[in-house]
Amino acid sequence: MYLCVDFDGTVVDHRYPLIGPPVPGALFWLGRLQKCGARIILFTMRSDGGASGDVLQQAVDYLEGKNISLYGVNRNPDQDSWTSSPKVYGHVYVDDAAVGCPLVHPEGFNRPCVDWAKVGPYLEKLCRKKR
């Protein structure tokens, strides 16, 4: 399963260009989904360079430092063989801005974020079906 995951508001609290505290359950579920066979693709607006530095690489380093291996960053390497589309191909997209994505607003967080207590188990069922 290709799992495209946003960063700010999905994995960490919105503190751009800084990296906020982790969204409750995000790292647990990403690790569990990775073990289930999900290919995790970081799908984020963060970019390299600019006044704030390489905020994209900071997000990549953060995830890898938490033992989350990325299959791709803002691209799915497998789609190069069958399309030249710039849209990242995935089976599922997890983003706090997505319509219908369950959200929570933990105390101290700047904005609502993904409710991994609901999203995680749902994704795990999908991942097991894709095996």
Structural account:
- The chain is 28% helix and 13% strand.
- The protein has 131 residues and is an alpha/beta fold.
- The strands form 2 sheets. A 4-stranded parallel β-sheet has the order 3-2-1-4, with helices on one face.
- The radius of gyration is 14 Å and the shape is globular.
- The mean pLDDT is 95.
By CATH, the topology of the domain at 1-89 is: Rossmann fold
Put simply, the count of helices is 3
**pLDDT under 50 segments (min length 5)?**
none
Please name the fourth-level CATH homologous superfamily of the domain at 1-89: HAD superfamily/HAD-like
Kindly report how far apart the N and C termini lie.
Answer: 8 Å
What is the percent of helical residues? 25-40%
Return the CATH class of the domain at 1-89.
Alpha Beta
If classified by CATH, what would the architecture of the domain at 1-89 be?
Answer: 3-Layer(aba) Sandwich
User: What Rg do the Cα atoms give?
Assistant: 14 Å
Q: If strands are numbered along the chain, what order do they take across the biggest sheet?
A: 3-2-1-4
Extended strand count = 6
Helix-strand makeup class: alpha/beta
Rounded average pLDDT: 95
Portion in beta strands? 5-15%
Largest sheet, in brief, is: 4 strands, parallel
Q: What form results from the Cα inertia axes?
A: globular
